[in-house]
Design brief:
Layout: H1 8-13, H2 16-36, H3 42-54, H4 59-69, H5 72-84, H6 97-133, E1 138-143, E2 146-152, H7 153-178, E3 180-181, H8 195-205, E4 208-209, H9 220-246, E5 254-255, H10 275-289, H11 291-296, H12 309-336, E6 338-339, H13 341-348, H14 357-366, H15 371-386, H16 395-402, H17 404-407, H18 412-417, H19 428-437
Parallel strand pairs: 3-4
Antiparallel strand pairs: 1-2, 5-6
Amino acid sequence: MIPRYSRKEMTNIWSPETRFRIWFEIEAHATMALAELGVVPGEAAKIIWEKGSAATFDVDRIDEIERTTKHDVIAFLTHLAEIVGPEARFVHQGMTSSDVLDTCLSVQLTRAADLLLADIDKLLAALMKRAKEHKYTITIGRSHGIHAEPTTFGIKLAEAYAEFRRNRERLVNARHEVAVCAISGAVGTFANIDPRVEAHVAEKLGLRVEPVSTQVIPRDRHAMYFATLGVVASSIERLATEIRHLQRTEVLEAEEYFSPGQKGSSAMPHKRNPVLSENLTGLARLVRGMVTPALENVALWHERDISHSSVERMIGPDATVTLDFALARLTGLIENLLVYPENMKRNLDLLGGLHNSQRVLLALTQAGLSREDAYAAVQRNAMRVWESRGDRAGQFAANLKADPEVSAKLSASEIDAMFDDFHHLKHVDTIFERVFESNA
């Protein structure tokens, strides 16, 4: 988590100041609940809430205490006692450190998810706008990197829109997974604290109660959360990789915006490189790299150990901050993406109409040739075009018309009719309706 790839609103969630404020709210809400149950004096709970709410927790002071105690929660409670006074003896009644740490992490992860969901919403809006703009911008589709059949640039972006809409649903579910509170005491049995305290704290913090916490909230919840972040990151990389390919000099169908004064290379002044897409590819790798540690955190010893703790202190901030930055960067990239329909048409025509080979194949089978014979006839005429080095315009159609086996089944006008590229776009409206107007 470095400033270069961080945005303030997300980093604030993980700051020590925010963490200690959440710790206080957990402790204070629990104390208020205990007061309502008659376990601690109501006036003491009120003083704790008022003094703590007005305080600014001294991070340096807490760190100083922790150097002696070697325990972060005890260090915080000691500092809280310095602020509150004698009434602080009623704080943390029947609780254990994990009650504070795990519930705090739930709050932080849900807040982070809310920011990420807002990020995805902005990306979806950008993708929808550009997809509709290029709904009928014809381009060649590629399989294995090789020309296949025509599609549209709008469909490419619609595919990304549908994928990120699925990601949004996944993130909503992942947020629900981790939005739980545990205030159950040592080994999670509620031996020294009433379950009603947990319910009260959960309600105040906008969480649900964890049914069985075994002192720590089960880490399968967190594994699901971070795995979802990894899937979102992979979708970012998929779209970024597509843009990187389309920006290659030999292709140049789309290009990242190159701002005035921007430089592409320290050595070669002519360069315009897809640096944002490449950066997004790298950031996606980082986020995915944090998924495996989260999965390995699921297996803890018995009711609790802290092997997960150091991992989460790293991946919680780093994964969410990095993904937040990446989603914002991708949104800006899409909003400002330069699209070159004329280059798309030029590339579409490079092979002289070979992208219509399937139409000819199907027409020959419907005219009476076996599929095997039809395939052989189309392929031999296509390969003559593929292996030629000259102007390929119209060459495929001309070869087909001159082939006795083909011309015996299809007239010249029937062959010409198969080279209408807009045949491939006849169901674009259906695709867009499915993506942008249905609830599927």
